[in-house]
Amino acid sequence: MVADESVETPSASGGREFWRRFRRSRAGVVGLSLVVLLIVVALAAPLLAPRDPQTTSMTTLKPPGTHGHPLGTDNLGRDILSGVLWGTRVSLTVGVCAAATAVLLGVFIGSMAGFYGGWADAVLGRVTELFQVIPRFVLALLVVALFGSGLWKLIAVIGILSWPQAARVVRGQVMALRGAAYVDAARVLGLRNARIIFSEILPNVLAPVVVIGSLDVAGSILLEASLGFFGLGDPNLVSWGMMLNNAQAHLRQAWWMSVFPGLGISLAVLGFNLMGDGLNDAANPRLGV
Amino acid sequence: MRTRMMAVFLVTLLATGMAAATPAEPQRGGSAVVAIGSDPETLNLGITTGYAVGAVAASIFSGLVWIDARGEIQPGLATSWTTSPDGLSYAFELRRGVKWHDGRVFTAQDVKFTMEQVTGLYHGRFRPAFQNFEAITVTSPQSIKITLKRPYAPLLRLLTVFDCPILPRHVYQGEDITRHSRNNDPVGTGPFKFREWVRGDRLVLERNDAYWDPVYLDRLIFRIIPGAALRVTALEVGEVDMVADFYLPKTDVDRLKRNPNVRLRLGQPIPSMGFMFINARRAPLDNPKVRRALALAINRVQIVTQAMGNLARPARGPFGDGFKWAFSPESDYNRLYPYNVERANALLDEAGLPRGAGGERPVRLRMVYDAARAPIAAAAAIIRDNLRAVGVTVDLQPMDRAVMIERIYTRPDYELTVQTFTSGGDPAIGYHRIFASAAPGVPFVNATGYSNPEVDSLLSRAAEVPERAARGKIYAQASKILAADVPTLMLFDEIGVDASRATLRGVWIGAEARDRWDAVWVQK
Amino acid sequence: MQAVPLLLGVIVVNFLLISLAPGDPVATLLGEYPAPPEYVAQLRREFGLDRPAPMRLALYAWNVARGELGFSFAYRLPVAALVAGRLGNTFLLMVTALSLAALVGVGLGVTAARRRGSGLDTAATGISLAGYSIPDFWLSQLLVLLFAVFLGWLPAQGIRSVREEYTGLAAFLDTARHLILPAAALSFRYTALISRLTRASMLEAMSQDFILAARARGLPERLVLLQHGLRNAALPVVTVIGYNFAFVLAGSALVETVFGWPGVGRLLYDAILQRDTPVLLGVLLMVSATVVVVNLLTDLLYAALDPRVRY
Predict the structure, then answer these.
(1) Distance between CA atoms of residues A255 and B42, nearest Å
(2) Distances (CA, A) of C246 to A138, A148, B247, B444, C297
(3) Are the beta carbons of B39 and B199 closer than 8 angstroms?
(4) Rounded to a whole number, what is the distance in Å from the CA of A244 to chain B's nearest CA?
């Protein structure tokens, strides 16, 4: 998922044109529908789930179709369907919050670097490179294993490890726009730098940032699931990654413990990836693709 | 035509019958592959109690004795022994003609050296016992005498290869024992010699032809397979021949039972227990009423069924029922603390912890445990659920072993934790440490802060008195106090399961699955 | 070269992390029973744990410069030797997986580009979408289930059979058999990525002027495709493989753990559980160094392939 740096600035009649192009992208529409579905499920989990997902019982390892457990139960008698539904919350929370953290950090740092240039840019460039050279998953594994796996810690770790990509794109964009005519005009008008950044430059950076944001959510969900699979998720919550970790030991007796949460992860990641694709198509219309 | 067929049939029947009547003769040759979960840190079994180390090194070294499957002590490097009536003096006759793997001759000096310079200093289980040694005297090249300061009933059980493996003096004397290069390719007196070690992959041992008993296998191979489920798969498809209890995930046992190529041994002569430390230093856990309420609220049967896959029995008392003679019916948990939510709620109300608006009591407990151990994680989840039902909130905090050790034993900074300890063959070796007073800083002992001088003195006496009946009475007294105070809630007595391929014969002669590989042979 | 400050930065980051983390590595090594305090103190001295942090960092940096990466707590072996030994296995897995991904991915991408809009195109798109949405550890589990357990065709884990000691060709084949499932699992994501990028790149290239010109000159379609189109497709492949190397390395950690493949990823996982600091630092350092080198090579390769880029 390497971001395309040579992004074009969308036209000034931005919003509506953007949306129109997005609607034309099949990937985007499918993605958006999936995402909306997930959000609905996450919000409505308490209503949709037949029972509390963390309540244990003595009906263990029952296959899908058992009375009262449409998707079966796990080794501690917990309902799989309820787990999958509630798991949406953790995945979306971590995914969106981590991506938001990454994007905010990236935009801030990237625009500083792009606008001011000079040594600030050089230092930030080095730091970005450093973060890109250390494999993200390995570092996340280390940090969470060492410092603990509470929900907010997870969000912080994943977010902090993901900002370089957004920063790179934003920096490139800001640098390109720095010399644009309307920016000069604003300077002549005496606007302060911060104001210029905020009101003139950033709105035009919005489009690629949104694309990156969507892809970041997908990546964060996957990273959280990977950490959960290694047992490094928050055990006080229901998460798909942890469900897969649990499923590992019971794989042969209870394929349903693995299949349904795994499908959940795949659909969530797919949804955000597709949406990101659609947003990308909308932001950079390509010829005949 | 029919007569001929009948004749053939009868002859075949006879032949098969005769074959079945003859017991199979051990065959020499072949190799056995054992799955272990990690690389051993070292192969010097005298300086560590790590499980993987024992798995490999138990076949390279020998102890003075070994424990058989019925729990009886059998001669190893010592062929006979006598104990003085006052229990202070043990005299051993050592086996003659034993050679080290490098050809040198084994003598009593090796035993004295090992105890004084190696195991007595570094081995976690042997060292406390060694503190009680008055002297070790070599009375001849083949005999040795140990005198104690005070009687110690389980001494003989601490002379197995797992607690005091005899090391060669001519290799280690005068050198730094813990960093010695031979720790990674050792010289021992055991049935197998070290051959090869490929880190992360395998360890290979080969037959020691100079061993005093016949050794059938050509090679004994240890395959390192960190994933529990993968070990079972490997066993089922025949890539490994044996997975011992420590490395066998409980959840797969049912399926293995149905597999005709796999044989299981259930139950273990060396009991071990799972339990929950309750940190009495933290209010409201300093109140015995609260601890008793926890005992009533936690469903030990559910833990046994779901977390342990029925490979355990619900704990019946502070020392469990693994040692029949140490069990006291008066302190039976089944009578004192059956699963009873109403009584638990009542006790908690009495203790001044009323339920609030949302049904929760003003108690928040952190449950710290080893993230890598699946049955413990499951037990912790069940306990959390059980306690939620009586209004007590539990925060699960899984963590890596090193951090967990620090949080529980060094600092201590926790409210509840689930652990398992092995008895080591006698309650005095492995269970006393759960209840005896202990200061923070030392891992794997009492971490609750509970300290009762009466219990301490009872436990000391129980370690000294030699005969079981008298010891049982002392344990009954201690159990009464411990069952009332519940400093630690005992959860279950483990039922061990070892699994091996049916083609492997002569296995499990010893109490320990890791022991006595010289007796094993492969049925072709 | 800017590689050096980068590596220094990696060392500092790693060291900070591990110094700040809770946990006592010595305690993990001692097994289940209480160990004598003198022995514990000895271990601590041995591994330099009783010295102040800045001094340890300086010592470590100096040692790294000399090529000495310390001594593993758990394995009692020099870290450099330990990691170097495993690196080969990881590279074997990664190279196989990436080659597979390149071959299949380009093939899929080209086919999809040629038959644009057809069922094949949609199918290829579907596969590539699945590819980077499906978690690779889940996929690994399913592969083990299907091929090792139910069908029994392939081994479940490890790098070679233990029972028989193969040599020569037999050894090669044995390793190849063990390599199939983990490489397949690891390659899936990158197959998807490469096929997508190839398809897009091919489509873009094929609509360009020089392609039209080539066609106008009467060159057969196949030649047009191969010579011009594919050359442009090579670029995204190089990009994906080269710049995603860090990800592939990380992905291999997951796959290695599931399949018991004795590589760097599994070493990392074990080291985390055992809190084996020297190994953790060593792995992170070597992995980062590798990424730096690969990035450099990718830059050079990219420049060579793309006529528009000039340094």
Answers:
(1) 38
(2) 9, 24, 33, 40, 14
(3) yes
(4) 13
What residues of chain C lie within 8 A of the CB of B414, using their CB? none
Chain C: closest CA distance from residue A124 (Å): 13
Whole-prediction pTM: 0.80
Provide the 3-class DSSP secondary structure of residue B147.
strand
Determine the distance in angstroms separating the CA of C112 from the nearest CA of chain B, rounded to an integer: 38
Residue of A nearest to B403 (CA): A146
User: What gap in Å lies between CA C271 and CA C267, rounded to an integer?
Assistant: 6
Token representation of residue C256:
């290695």
Q: Does A249 touch chain B (CB under 8 A)?
A: yes
Task: Tell which B residues from 160 to 189 touch C, by Cβ distance under 8 Å.
Answer: 178-179, 183-184
Across C12-24, average pLDDT = 71
CA dihedral for B463, B468, B473, B477, sign (positive or negative): positive
Q: What is the ipTM of this complex?
A: 0.77
The string of pLDDT tens digits covering residues B388-433 is 999 999 999 988 777 888 889 988 999 999 999 989 889 999 999 9
* Cα Rg, chain B, nearest whole Å: 25
Q: Is C151 touching B (CB cutoff 8 A)? A: no
**For residue range A194-253, what is the model confidence (pLDDT) as tens digits?**
676 677 667 777 778 888 899 899 999 999 998 888 777 888 999 999 898 888 777 777
Cα end-to-end distance, chain A, whole Å: 19
Chain A CB within 8 Å of residue C167 CB: no
Closest CA to A61 of A229, A250, A261, A260: A250
Q: Which of A271-280, B248-257, C215-224 has the lowest mean pLDDT?
A: C215-224
In this structure, what token pair is assigned to residue A245? Answer: 């970790």
* B272, B428, B431, C213 from B423: Cα distances, Å: 5, 8, 6, 84
- CB nearest to C162's CB, from B122, B202, B401: B202
The C residues from 25 to 44 touching B (CB cutoff 8 Å) are: 25, 27-39, 42-43
Reported as type and span, the H/E element at residue B193 is strand B192-198
Q: Are B124 and C156 in contact (CB < 8 Å)? A: no
List B194's β-bridge partners, or say none: B205
Question: Mean of the per-residue pLDDT values for chain C?
Answer: 75
The percent of chain A in helix, strand and coil, each rounded to the nearest 5, is 70, 0, 25
Q: Which long-range contacts (CB under 8 A, 24 or more apart) does A19-22 make?
A: A19/A282, A21/A281, A21/A282, A21/A285, A22/A278, A22/A279, A22/A281, A22/A282
Burial class (CB in 10 A: 0-12, 13-18, 19+), C45: exposed
